[in-house]
Amino acid sequence: MMNKYRVIKDNNKRKDVDALAEELVINVIRIFYFRLSIQEPIAEYRWFKNNEQINKTYMKSSWDEDEIDNMVVEVCSFPLIYKPSPDAPYGFKVCTPAKVFPGQVAKQGLMEKLKTSIGRKFRNLYSSSDVPAPSLDINEDEYDTSSSDSVELN
After folding, report:
1. Which pLDDT tens digit goes with each residue over 100-129?
2. Which strands make up the sheet holding 80-84, listed edge to edge?
3. Which DSSP string do the residues of 36-63 spell out, in sequence order?
4. From CA 98, how far away is CA 116, in angstroms rounded?
5. Domain edges within the chain
6. DSSP conformation class of 35
7. Residue range 15-37: average pLDDT?
8. From CA 4, how far away is CA 28, in angstroms rounded?
9. C-alpha count within 13 angstroms, C-beta hemisphere, residue 90
């Protein structure tokens, strides 16, 4: 399956890579389906999504401590493995921190800020009534672009 996305010309290297892939799959199954289940209490895992805020308590990576407030998860390459614990600060005890690659927080453009601001005001306005708030999204099917009245720009 991976050979659709890569080309390895050296036959020996291709065999080594294929053997590693098989070993990797076996190890993933061993860890996530067997080893986590034999822990007491049973350990759980969580993959972090793109653009989630970085938390250095249960994430591991290389980042600048001064900029950690402006960092988000770009890619999570290994999940957080934890055990639920009501005594712990976050409600769980970290067994293995998540391995993440950080990225900078994407700054909102003027239009996104305006849309968010107006959306909040509409939600607040309509939250007290039973009438659903109108959507700010434009339905492109609403406008007929095949009309002969349209003007072409050169």
Report:
1. 988 887 665 666 666 666 766 666 665 555
2. 44-46, 80-84, 92-96
3. TTTSSSPPEEEPPPTTPBP-TTTEE---
4. 31
5. 1-35, 43-127
6. I
7. 85
8. 22
9. 9
Query: What are the tens digits of pLDDT across the range 34-65?
Result: 888 887 888 889 999 988 888 888 899 888 78
Checking DSSP bridges between strand 44-46 and strand 80-84, what pairing results, if any?
antiparallel
Report the distance separating Cα 79 and Cα 128, nearest Å.
41
Strand partners, 71: 104
Question: Do 105 and 71 form a contact (C-beta atoms < 8 A)?
Answer: yes
**Which of 15-19, 75-79, 148-152 is most confident?**
75-79
Q: Could you tell me which of 130, 10, 105 has the C-alpha nearest to residue 53? A: 105
**Which pLDDT score is estimated for 32?**
80
